[in-house]
Design brief:
Blueprint (H helix, E strand, L loop, with lengths): L1 E6 L20 E5 L8 E7 L5 H11 L5 E7 L22 E7 L2 H11 L15 E6 L5 E3 L2 E7 L9 E7 L2 E6 L20 H9 L5 E5 L4 H4 L10 H10 L4 E5 L7 H17 L3 E4 L5 E3 L6
Parallel strand pairs: 3-4, 4-5, 5-6, 10-11, 11-12, 12-13
Antiparallel strand pairs: 1-2, 1-14, 2-3, 7-8, 8-9, 9-10
Helix pairs in contact: 5-6
The structure holds zinc ion (ZN) (2 copies).
One zinc ion binds next to loops.
């Protein structure tokens, strides 16, 4: 299994010189499915529809001839705007021979939200103008199957309780976990570690990350500034490294960078967290747009 990163930024797209190296698009990640690339019936698996889903949609159009039937599965961790805002510009919505499955914590609510985003006062093309076939699904505790890949969801601590998910994709004994938006349940800056790893919520999270080959995790803040942003729903990077290492994960991709952070600041974060990761036996790097991580390869 391979994972391709299309959007890394939290909250709002941040184009410009200061974000060229890591990228300014909001969250979108593609799990590349190990299937026959010559098949006339292809599955495409996408986590979140931030502004990064626009270039991904263009790539899908370019790389699939019209006679190929596409089954596109888009799992939304939640519907905060930075995770859905790219969807109206996802050109496969207007492709024939295409079935798009949308998954969310509540199918009816997800449909209502995505329709509202394309309501005529907000966008000139509505969901009723979409050419592909679309279906909305509610996540259940039963994993979803996309070709050979199993997708499992887990509620995480962010926004409305029970309505925000982390996602785990498993195939051929490999696992990728995607948790773009989350924060510690019980932060205590004066202790080590600065959160309670025995909190049942943290235990469930660590279990969800269990021995993942690759984890993408919210690192919007650092210990030094997290306290002033407590309750905003995002993590200090040190927490991300600690939970991923505790779970025995192999690699951690830093993610959901603050829109206020320029490349130099993200580079410093990457350097600091990679050093911390080495001490905890996990490879840590900054997620960049265009990056492909092959789960079959050993971490550095
Ligand atoms: Zn977000
Ligand atoms: Zn969010």
């Amino acid at each position: 299994m391979k994972v391709k990163v299309w959007g890394v930024r939290g909250s709002i797209p941040t184009p410009g010189e200061a974000t060229l190296r890591y990228g300014g698009n909001t969250p979108c990640v593609q799990v590349e499915i190990p299937e026959d690339p010559q098949s006339k019936n292809r599955n495409i698996l996408i986590f979140d529809g931030g502004s990064g889903v626009r270039p991904l949609g263009n790539e899908i159009m370019k790389s699939h001839p019209e006679d190929v039937h596409l089954n596109i599965h888009i799992f939304f961790t939640h519907v905060h705007w930075d995770h859905i805002q790219g969807l109206p510009f996802f050109v496969p919505l207007f492709r024939k021979n295409t079935m798009i499955h949308f998954y969310g914590s509540d199918a009816a609510k997800l449909e209502e939200t995505l329709r509202l985003q394309m309501y005529p006062d907000m966008f000139p093309v509505t969901m009723d103008d979409v050419i592909s076939h679309i279906e909305f699904h509610t996540y259940t505790d039963t994993p979803a199957q996309v070709g050979p890949v199993r997708v499992i969801r887990q509620s995480v601590h962010h926004g409305t309780p029970g309505r925000v998910a982390g996602l785990r994709a498993e195939c051929d004994g490999q696992a990728f976990v995607y948790i773009p938006d989350v924060e510690p349940y019980d932060y205590r800056p004066d202790q080590s570690p600065p959160y309670d790893p025995d909190n049942p919520g943290e235990q469930a999270l660590i279990k969800f990350l269990d021995h993942a080959d690759f984890v993408i995790f919210d690192t919007m803040f650092v210990d030094e500034n997290y306290n002033q942003f407590r309750g905003w729903g995002h993590s200090p990077a040190e927490y991300a490294v600690d939970v991923a290492a505790r779970a025995g994960a192999k690699r951690l991709g830093l993610f959901h960078y603050s829109p206020n952070c320029c490349d130099d600041q993200v580079e410093k974060l990457e350097k600091d967290m990679s050093k911390l990761g080495k001490a905890k036996n996990i490879e840590v790097f900054g997620s960049r747009e265009g990056m492909v991580v092959d789960l079959g390869k050993d971490p550095k």
